[in-house]
Design goal:
Rossmann fold, seven-stranded parallel β-sheet, globular, alpha/beta, 433 residues, 15% strand, 18 helices
Length: 433
Amino acid sequence: MSVARFFYSLLWYLATPLLLLRLLWRARRQPEYLDYVAERFGFYRGVSAAGPWIWVHAVSVGETRAAAPLIRALQARYRGHHILLTHMTPTGRETGSALFGDGVLQCYLPYDQPGAVARFLERFRPVIGVLIETEVWPNLIHAAAKRRMPLYLVNARLSARSQAGYRRMGTLARDALCALTGITAQTTEDAARLRELGVAEVAVTGNLKFDIEVPAEQVAAGRELRASLGARPVLLAASTRDGEEALLLDAVQHSGLGDALLIIVPRHPQRFDAVAALVAARGLRMQRRSADGVIAADTSVLLGDSLGEMYFYYAACDVALLGGSFLPYGAQNLIEPCALGKPVILGPSTYNFAEAADVAVAAGAALRAADFEEALPQALQLARDVERRRAMAQAGLAFTDSYRGATQRVMECLRLPDITRSPDGAQRNPGQS
């Protein structure tokens, strides 16, 4: 074990009490953090280990959605193997359950302690591992390499801020990245930053999120809600982050909504009640999506307090204001509204989707605003301009269609050495008759 990884591992073990306290703290708002705690340390009692397993790790909601087209492609190609899908958050796990049901086995990936990751790998013995987006765990990667298990980082994105963080880790991050079997990046900029950290080869495959299948049932339900609201403009604040709702509601009080309905969907479910309190404090009439009632004419705000329904909300709106972009969070996924032909208004912070944001704006599918004070009047005006919305919708659909195909490119990069094909197309393991 290198000196850097020794001290890194020591810190993980010393931090164990703090990790447990953190779970307790987060459980105050989201009790599910206390479920399956043993899995976070590599103990999987009662979990079937019967494989063979193709393992995909998607830390939370965004990564799980991004992984969906890849998982379906893996299931279609390797029918003799099962998918093990791991997460780090309860919302990621719930999203995986909603997307795949019993079609995959889900559990938590353990913390990056040598003993925990060894127990995980020994329990399931995956044929191959696939990490989605930005998950770099030195002990996990080392343990996989020691077992000669192919481990890939796919759909990788690396902002300048994250690159600086990895640089501060020195040889620990470089050695981990270089020990991966392969890396595929979303953009040429992501690939360049990874190469600057010492990675020799990075394939640019595009963003898996462009290949996500739109759930028809959610879209139909969202359109039904939109039709029920008649001529009222409908604005959506999508996947808002902490602090953004207060700024948006300040803009509402300053500019007003007129007869428009504002749908606010917080990114994290543990903040639903806090956002409801912010709305109530400003004297706005609010309803909750979870109440599933008819939207009253005098309701100004619909709180989207449900999980896994973002396409429902996008289908129900006229214009989407993208959360995470109005404070320095780097923006949430702008691909989803564009794929439904919804005009998007972005704030100034879009580093998580830098290339996609720039291309969407250049294509006429999205607009930029400095803050909510500028974005809200812009959204209200756009919601009433049918022709302009139609043009932006067509631009959004063309933008997303032109970027599809990342799933197939990633699949071409993955190498599963112990899976071969028989002449009839079925999968065989070496030595299997």
